[in-house]
Amino acid sequence: MITCVVEYVIDARKIDAFERFASRWMELVERHGGTHHGYFLPAEGASDKALALFSFSSLAAYEEYRTHFGTDPDFVDADRIRDESGCVLRYERTFMRPLLPGGSR
């Protein structure tokens, strides 16, 4: 299993648009074979930080999901929310492997 951790710097004034963007991506990850663990939005502290975590069974499965970027109309529509609203200022992806309770991976 591989987990993608996406760290966002967002425009806190556009949190509603970010939530619409996030909701669409949760649906798309699930529809294309991944497990979305949710978006984590500002509550206290920095108001411009958000995180997303989602997993695929392997890096190859993630790469298959990525083939839809820029071509699948649902993926394009989800990105349009981000691009037109300006809710995301910057983001960075990191891939991690989970160590779960009981030593399971």
UniProtKB/TrEMBL annotation:
Protein name per Swiss-Prot or TrEMBL: NIPSNAP family protein
Source species of the chain: Nocardia yunnanensis
Domain of life: Bacteria
UniProt xrefs under SUPFAM superfamilies: Dimeric alpha+beta barrel
Pfam families given in the database record: NIPSNAP
Residues in NIPSNAP domain copies: 7-99
